[in-house]
Write a structure and sequence with these properties.
The complex is a heterodimer. Chain A is of the alpha/beta class. Helix content of chain A is 38%, strand content 25%. Chain A has 10 helices and 10 strands. The longest helix of chain A is centred in the C-terminal third of the chain and has 18 residues. Chain B is an all-alpha fold. Chain B has one domain. Chain B is built from 12 helices and no strands. In chain B, helix 2 runs parallel beside helix 4. Classes of the chains: A alpha/beta, B mainly alpha. At the A-B interface, helix 3 and helix 4 of A face helix 6 and helix 7 of B.
Chain lengths: 249, 292
């Protein structure tokens, strides 16, 4: 992504705003004073070493845990302190790093559960269309816990998309995938964003994939935001290099 | 072959099994069924003995009692369910056992529920068990139809999803508190309505009808029958209600044998008698029969 385009993105009105967001677990400051904003339609990457607070941030955005302090808004609506189901109905959907599919249900039923609030007596056609999009239709009648790892990851995405989100949070969508699956996923996500008019925030350890995919990225380290910018700016940021490689202090 | 009277009790057992199954289908271990059963039975006993029915009562009046019992237990379950369903697993089970005890002690001590001896001479709508078989069997058939529909409905799928992973279900935009409360209230209504039929059938009602023992017995219906389909608690309820009576010839040993069955059932049938694999086999067999 070109730097110029990234700058154009940041000039638009922000759709997701975080102001001074912090989360403390007992004596552990998991996130401290994180502020940034994401524009509508943007693909936004979130990287950082293990334990940097990336998943904690997703938990705050999806209502799984409330922030200790700070303010979160999506499309002007207050998000902090809302329950996960209320936030989902506001258009925020997520996937889980450690996969939380409904293992005893079939692949089709997993998507049907997520279509709970969609109108219409016949949900199956909608569910099948989504499975088709993610290349899972041939597995519709299989139990979710029988699927191979890559398929489970895609089913998590299908299930999140079924709730008709406007903001989709993907927690390590490529984890456990082989290189060719990763490439396919990259194309798929770009396509998804177009077709469903999504704003995407992606946590990923596979940095090259994110560099290729994202308009802008944020880097967390020990719960603090240490860098924000285009992939190019992130790549050359000395603080990022230090966080990842360990600086000579 | 069980006699007609036993058949009525078996069907009532199946209905109570379904009442325990409902919250369990949404992953909630609630033992509150006897409390609502007791409320329904006591309400029917009071309504029927206070009106002047001269020994018999019309079916219409019994149906009206069922409606009132349904409304009362639904209101009670909503009131109790909202705080109690915040608990999970064994803690929810303990809280619901407490509810059973509170209701039992209340019925034992209230000035108008007959104390330890209970209420006698509850008028009968039928003079033959066949009437009760029709009434309770009709209710069981209605439940079967409703449960079958539930399994492919939004609510039923949401319940199954909560049983699997409540947090993930919430992240799908589903208000899981509302779903769990719906299951709890439906369970209470079913128990209350069953209590109304039982009170008339037994002709007498007292606080012991809704005791902790009933909670364990009805839970055994679901565990032995299977908790993965509504057919499980129905089969479990029918079998385990019949068993003590069928074992009567062996005298005092029967309760020991009954206990052994409850104890060993889960060892040999860990998923219950009606398992998902069995249902799948049945489904394939039905398909083969349909396709010539």
């Amino acid at each position: 992504m070109e730097t110029a385009e990234a700058e154009a993105m940041s000039e638009q009105a922000a759709s997701l705003e975080l102001h001074g967001v912090s989360r403390r677990f007992g004596g552990l400051q998991a996130l401290s004073d994180v502020s940034f904003s994401v524009q509508e339609g943007e693909i936004f990457g979130l990287i950082g070493p293990n334990g940097a607070g990336k998943t904690t941030l997703f938990n705050l955005l999806s209502g799984v845990t409330p922030p200790t302090s700070g303010m979160i808004r999506w499309r002007g609506k207050r998000c902090h302190g809302l329950s996960p189901d209320a936030l989902n109905r506001l258009g925020i959907a997520r996937t889980f790093q450690n996969l939380r599919l409904f293992g005893e249900l079939t692949v089709l039923e997993n998507v049907l559960v997520a279509l709970h609030h969609q109108a219409g007596a016949q949900l199956e056609p909608q569910a099948l269309a989504l499975l088709e999009e993610l290349d899972l239709a041939h597995l519709a009648d299989r139990r979710a816990d029988e699927l191979a790892y890559g398929n489970r990851r895609r089913l998590e995405i299908a299930r999140a998309l079924a709730t008709k989100p406007t903001l989709l949070l993907l927690d390590e969508p490529a984890a456990g995938m082989n290189p060719s699956e990763k490439d396919q996923l990259c194309d798929l996500l770009a396509e998804m964003r177009q077709r469903h008019q999504l704003t995407l925030i992606v946590i990923e350890h596979h940095v090259p994939l994110l560099m290729q995919l994202c308009h802008r990225m944020a880097v967390l380290d020990f719960g603090r935001l240490i860098a924000l910018g285009s992939p190019e700016q992130i790549r050359t940021n000395p603080r990022v290099i230090e966080a990842y490689l360990g600086g000579a202090r | 072959m069980p006699d007609n009277g036993l058949l009525v009790q078996m069907i009532l057992g199946a209905l109570l099994g379904l009442s325990v199954y409902l919250p369990m289908a949404a992953g909630q271990l609630s033992l509150a069924t006897p409390a609502f059963y007791a409320v329904g039975g006591t309400l029917a006993a009071l309504m029927a003995t206070h009106a002047d029915h001269q020994g018999t009562i019309s079916l219409g009046a019994v149906l009206w009692e069922m409606v009132v019992a349904g409304a009362l237990t639904a209101a009670l379950a909503t009131l109790v369910g909202l705080p109690v369903l915040r608990l999970r697993g064994i803690y929810l089970a303990i809280a619901t056992i407490a509810l059973v005890e509170i209701v039992r002690v209340a019925i034992l001590n209230l000035p108008f529920t007959g104390g330890a001896t209970g209420i006698f001479g509850i008028p009968q709508p039928f003079h033959h068990p066949l009437g009760y078989i029709t009434l309770s069997g009709g209710l069981l058939a209605l439940c079967g139809w409703a449960f079958q529909r539930l399994e492919t409905s939004r609510l039923g799928r949401a319940m199954a999803a909560i049983r699997d992973d409540e947090l993930a279900t919430r992240c799908m935009g589903i208000n899981t508190t509302r779903v769990k409360l719906s299951a709890f209230v439906a369970s209470a209504v079913l128990a209350g309505v069953t209590g109304v039929i039982a009170a008339h059938y037994l002709n007498t009602w007292n606080a012991r009808q809704g005791s902790f023992d009933v909670a364990i017995t009805t839970l055994a219906f679901v565990i032995l029958g299977g908790s993965r389909s509504w057919l499980g608690p129905v089969i479990g309820g029918l079998l385990l209600t019949a068993l003590p009576e069928l074992l009567r010839p062996v005298g005092d040993l029967r309760l020991v044998l009954f206990g052994l069955v409850i104890l060993l059932g889960p060892v040999f049938f860990p998923q219950g008698l009606i398992t998902p694999a069995l249902l799948e086999k049945l489904g394939r067999w039905k398909l083969r029969r349909l396709k010539p």
